[in-house]
Design goal:
Blueprint (H helix, E strand, L loop, with lengths): L10 H8 L9 E5 L5 H8 L3 E6 L1 H4 L4 H7 L7 E3 L13 E7 L8 H11 E10 L18 E2 L7 E2 L2 H5 L3 E8 L4 H5 L3 E11 L3
Parallel strand pairs: 1-2, 1-4, 2-3, 4-5, 6-7
Antiparallel strand pairs: 5-9, 8-9
Length: 202
């Protein structure tokens, strides 16, 4: 059975989209590290104002442009932006920000996260792999240099650091699957949702 839905989205994409705010939403989304733009295209069809960005120097290595064309995605313009340099983004704040499967590649991921929070007006949605799930053995930034698990054991980083890094905003963390095969392979992603309208200390 094909795990992709009618829009070509896998369960991880759907979980990300389901995490966007609904009540009184402007339906504005910045996507940082848009990759093949599948979710971006679907969000646009859902009526969202989507600003898709990637660091083109690195994105070229994955040939995302070819993948977009083969998937029939022609309605998305990708802006060249570097999450470590806020001046490269079209504007400085967006209602919601999505950054999926990016921070595991960045040595300065804490700086990147701080910048993501700065770009976010309302809701920040981040995914990173659990332990060595989906690991690319190539050197970063193509491969992974950060690895998290539930409690920081066995030399992994503790995923709960995101709660303190995103304080004082309320942060929820859960594990999600990408496809049924992940069950056999023992692979997960963490879905991290930061709500800037909710503060834990008030």
């Amino acid at each position: 059975m094909n795990h992709l839905n009618e829009n070509g989205l896998d369960p991880r994409h759907v979980s990300i989209i389901d995490s966007l705010p609904v009540y009184n939403s402007k339906k504005e989304v910045l996507v940082v590290g848009c990759g093949n733009c599948k979710k971006d295209s679907v969000l646009k069809k859902m009526g969202y104002d989507v600003i898709s960005t990637d660091y083109i120097t690195e994105a070229k290595k994955y040939n995302f442009q070819k993948k977009m064309l083969s998937a029939g995605i022609t309605d998305i313009t990708v802006h060249n932006a570097n999450i470590l340099d806020l001046s490269t983004f079209p504007k400085q704040q967006y209602e919601s920000v999505i950054c999926a499967e990016v921070l595991e590649h960045l040595i300065d991921y804490r700086v990147a996260l701080k910048n993501l929070l700065s770009l976010t007006e309302r809701r920040l949605i981040v995914t990173v792999p659990w332990q060595y799930s989906f690991n690319d053995p190539a050197p970063p930034p193509k491969g992974h240099c950060n690895f998290w698990n539930d409690n920081g054991s066995a030399n992994f980083k503790n995923i709960n650091e995101y709660r303190s890094l995103c304080a004082p905003y309320t942060t929820s963390i859960q594990k999600i699957r990408t496809k049924p095969k992940d069950v056999q392979m023992g692979q997960y992603s963490y879905l991290i949702i930061v709500d800037k309208q909710q503060k834990w200390n008030i």
